[in-house]
Amino acid sequence: MRLVIARCSVDYTGRLNAHLPLATRLLVHKGDGSLLVHSDGGSYKPLNWMSPPCSLSSEVPGEEEASAGVVEVWRVTHKKTGDALRVQIYEIIHDTSHELGVDPGLQKDGVEADLQRLLAEQVERISEGATLVRREYPTAIGPVDLLVRDADGAAIAVEIKRRGDIDGVEQLTRYLELLGRDPHLSPVQGVFAAQEIKPQARVLAEDRGIRCLVLDYDDMKGIESGIPRLF
After folding, report:
1. 80 φ, ψ to 5°?
2. Residue 107: CB atoms within 10 Å
3. Cys-Cys link to 220, which of 44, 82, 118, 177 (CB 3.0-4.6 A)?
4. Integer CA distances (angstroms), 23 to 41, 47, 52, 190, in order
5. 9 to each of 1, 6, 18, 39, 113, how far by Cα in Å?
6. How many CA atoms lie within 13 A of 72 on its CB side?
């Protein structure tokens, strides 16, 4: 992973156009090829980014750019859509690279871990006649929560969250892309499951052909325990 603090401006072109004027920012270039542009605010969310599969190339600034103080230009291009992120760098303040190694993945806490276990035991909530292949099915970027097959044998990858937001949809999208390369699984359907799914996340998921599933944690626990429930 390469971490660069630089005075830069950023332009995104593709399905939409966006511009970040000149300012000091953190550029994070990850081993998977992605680039994230961060400011000193906004918590974990980048100002702009390019998700894999993508490639980064360095360009020599044009005469007009060089005269304005640009010393280097980065172009990050998405390999499938052609969307591009162009970073004009005026000054590099800090530049380091680090080998992070293989990440063990997120350890599920409390309710989320229970949701995964319960849904694995109640896979018919995902699809009638479905069968579980495996929990924590491995991919090159971490495990997808559940891999199941429907009654016709089609593969379904399921990502489970307590609260489903856009980041969760993006995460499942990356898993689907990797799993879809396996001829024994392809084509792979996606299901985004959560106790609560934010409207923006639902729109993004449905736009990408991912089905949303709202989970009733109490109901799922009631089925597990066998205790009669009035409501």
Report:
1. -100, -45
2. 7
3. 118
4. 13, 12, 25, 39
5. 21, 9, 11, 12, 41
6. 10
**Two structure tokens written together for 155:** 């593969």
Q: What is the mean pLDDT of residues 57-70?
A: 95
For range 188-206, the mean pLDDT: 96
CA distance 94 to 24: 11
SS3 151: coil
Above 70 in pLDDT, residue 76? Answer: yes
Rounded CA-CA distance 24/26 in Å is 7
Kindly compute the dihedral angle of the four CA atoms of residues 182, 207, 51, 38, in this order, to the nearest 10 degrees. Answer: -150
**Coil, helix or strand at residue 53:** coil
- Alpha-carbon separation of residue 188 from 19, 192, 197, 202 (angstroms): 35, 13, 21, 19
Say how far apart CA 4 and CA 70 lie, in whole Å: 16
Token readout for 219 is: 């109901």
- CA gap 177, 94 in Å, rounded: 34
Q: Do the Cβ atoms of 102 and 38 come closer than 8 Å?
A: no
Give the separation between CA 190 and CA 147, rounded to whole angstroms.
10
Res. 113 pLDDT band, cuts 50 70 90: confident
One-letter amino acid of 170: E
Cβ atoms within 10 Å, residue 185: 19
The pLDDT mean for the chain works out to 91
